[in-house]
Design a protein that fits this description.
The chain is mostly helical. Among the domains are: 70 residues, Cytochrome c-like domain (Cytochrome Bc1 Complex, Chain D, domain 2); 81 residues, Orthogonal Bundle (Cytochrome Bc1 Complex, Chain D, domain 2), CATH 1.10.760. The protein contains 9 helices and no strands. Helix 8 runs antiparallel to helix 9. The chain is globular and about 45 Å long. The structure holds heme C (HEC) (2 copies).
Length: 219
């Protein structure tokens, strides 16, 4: 079902915004590849990547996302090992109020692009760790087969570690995976990348639960 009205307009705006961001990052990556076209000057946001994330800010994030980036809090996602571009894009969307997260309301107000790059770098470097919940072999195998048939790995990578603006699914909290997949399926994933629109259409709660179980068990 196509989106209509103001919601559709907002989605288009976000899609445009993300495409622009992705192109900017792709451009900066290309500029650093030796042997390609004339080196363009690196964008300011990339040039500012050097400073480490402020420990006080990281401690604030740790309250909900875990001291080592692996969350112990229900429905609060782990950030450890997430791709840098995904983290940068998402933090900018949250700061600008485009992806609204009530628990993070106002938390990124006035945080500079340079600090966002540093935060993204910090969490990207942390090692993702599965929750350690007991494995249900039946659900694991069903989840693996469904995700494989649905070609989720073409974007999230075959090991589901994520890449660029595609988040890591491997070792993510199972409850958070269920919640976010249902939101995408039910068109309630407000302020999120339109690439996931339609991907989960027609999937049952059971399919989603099995895939979440599978991804959560992966390293
Ligand atoms: C009070 C709890 C809380 C604090 C503090 C907090 N967050 Fe969050 N954060 C959440 C919750 C809950 C979500 C999931 C929202 C949703 O999708 O429903 C989230 C989502 C995110 C996401 C999106 C992750 C994904 O996989 O989609 C990022 C990135 C993030 N937070 C970064 C941060 C950073 C960086 C800080 C510190 C500056 C921080 N958060 C502080 C609760 C918190
Ligand atoms: C065309 C590329 C593409 C395909 C195919 C795809 N995804 Fe995604 N997925 C994305 C992008 C991009 C995001 C980031 C959305 C955002 O944060 O705005 C995402 C986000 C997600 C998230 C949210 C994770 C988080 O940390 O917030 C889940 C869960 C997810 N995808 C599961 C799946 C599953 C399951 C499949 C297969 C049925 C799939 N995806 C197929 C591109 C894709």
């Amino acid at each position: 079902m196509p989106a209509r009205g103001p919601q559709a307009t907002a989605r288009k705006a976000v899609a445009f915004f993300l495409t622009t961001l992705a192109l900017a990052f792709a451009g900066s990556a290309q500029a650093q590849t030796p042997g390609t076209a004339p080196a363009a000057p690196a964008p300011a946001v990339a040039a500012a990547a050097a400073p480490a994330a402020a420990p006080a800010r990281v401690a604030l994030c740790a309250a909900c996302h875990g001291a080592d980036g692996n969350s112990a809090l229900a429905n609060s996602p782990s950030l450890a090992g997430q791709p840098k571009v995904f983290l940068e894009n998402t933090l900018i969307l949250i700061r600008e109020g485009l992806r609204q997260i009530p628990a993070m309301q106002g938390l990124l107000n006035g945080v500079s692009d340079a600090e966002i790059v540093a935060l993204a770098d910090h969490f990207n470097r942390q090692a993702a760790r599965p929750q350690g919940t007991a494995r249900d072999d039946g659900a694991f195998k069903r989840g693996e087969a469904i995700a494989s048939r649905a070609l989720c790995g073409t974007c999230h990578l075959p090991n589901y570690a994520g890449q660029q603006q595609m988040p890591r699914l491997a070792a993510q909290r199972e409850d958070y995976l269920v919640q976010s997949m249902r939101e995408f399926r039910d068109n309630k994933a407000q302020g999120r990348d339109t690439m996931m629109n339609g991907v989960l259409r027609g999937f049952s709660d059971r399919d989603i639960a099995d895939m979440a179980h599978y991804f959560a068990q992966l390293r």
